[in-house]
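To the wet lab folks,

You asked to see what we're planning to order before we commit. Fair enough. Below is the target structure as tokens, and below that is the sequence we designed to fit it. If anything looks off to you, flag it before the synthesis order goes out.
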């Protein structure tokens, strides 16, 4: 768990960051009491080196007035606001755009392999994958014969057959 503990100046914005320097949220910086950026209600910004929360919408050109349209706040308030807004799903969904818990994704992936059905041998009209041993057995039992002259020979893979001397011969057909 990273702990948020500092504000760091970064030209026009300041960022709330963790102890490893990873930015968590960037904030606009107001250099005078006249707003140079729009701030929606409940948004955060920096003014006079202080963290503020807008209590009402502030438009460009509006006067920033503590107690009227903003209030000082803390990093803890920002983080609480962010965590209140963050929705993390506890189940997979085809329609949600929320983040999903890691353990939920892992469980779904683990079940995926378990849900596959494999055939032990090639099966007519089956959409299932066939286990390697089933494919090998099916190939080994192919009975393809070819007539060559007066002899009928068993043809093995890609037009080869076993000759009378036991060697592999290429079929003429």
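Sequence we intend to order:
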């Amino acid at each position: 768990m990273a702990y948020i503990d500092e504000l760091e100046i970064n030209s026009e914005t300041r960022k709330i960051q963790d102890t490893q320097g990873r930015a968590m949220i960037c904030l606009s910086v107001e250099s005078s009491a006249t707003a140079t950026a729009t701030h929606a209600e409940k948004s955060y910004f920096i003014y006079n080196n202080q963290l503020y929360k807008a209590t009402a919408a502030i438009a460009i050109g509006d006067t920033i007035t503590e107690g009227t349209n903003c209030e000082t706040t803390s990093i803890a308030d920002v983080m609480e606001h962010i965590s209140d807004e963050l929705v993390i799903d506890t189940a997979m969904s085809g329609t949600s755009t929320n983040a999903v818990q890691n353990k939920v994704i892992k469980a779904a992936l683990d079940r995926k392999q378990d849900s596959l059905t494999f055939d032990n041998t090639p099966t007519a009209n089956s959409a299932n994958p066939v286990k390697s041993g089933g494919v090998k057995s099916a190939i080994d039992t192919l009975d393809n014969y070819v007539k060559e002259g007066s002899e009928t020979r068993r043809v093995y893979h890609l037009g080869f057959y076993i000759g009378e001397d036991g060697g592999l011969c290429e079929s003429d057909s």
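Structural context that might help your review: Confidence is low (pLDDT under 50) at residues 1-11. Residues 132-170 form one domain.

Thanks,
Computational group
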